[in-house]
Amino acid sequence: MQQGINPIARFLPMIILGIICVIFNIFIAPRKGRSRILYGILAVIPFFGFFSVLYLVSLPEKIIENKLDKIIELLQISEK
User: Fold this and answer.
1) What CA–CA distance (Å, rounded) separates 78 from 59?
2) What pLDDT shows up at residue 41?
3) Do residues 46 and 16 lie in contact, with contact meaning Cβ atoms separated by under 8 Å?
4) How far apart (Å, rounded) are the C-alpha atoms in residues 46 and 69?
5) In a domain, 55, yes or no
6) How far is CA 46 from CA 18, 23, 29, in A?
7) Counted domains in the chain
8) How far is residue 52's CA from residue 29's CA, in Å, rounded to a whole number?
9) Has residue 24 been placed in a domain?
10) Among candidates 4, 48, 49, 9, which has minimal Cα distance to 26?
11) What does the pLDDT look like over 16-66, one tens digit per residue?
12) Range of 61's domain?
């Protein structure tokens, strides 16, 4: 009789990737102005976690957005 692979070993790569996605989302989400808890939970969902990481990476950082808004505001004030 052939021994099968342990069921936990089959899911181990997916579990490791999920943990990496959760950690990444927890640290990156606040910098992007998003909820740390929400994106941490979304990263646990198989396959969606990877796409949530890609989505967060594609967003501009909140600090840069705020600085650009201030620059635009100052430019509009100086034009008047």
Assistant:
1) 29
2) 92
3) no
4) 36
5) yes
6) 7, 15, 19
7) 1
8) 10
9) yes
10) 49
11) 988 999 999 999 999 999 999 999 999 998 888 889 999 999 998 999 999
12) 7-79
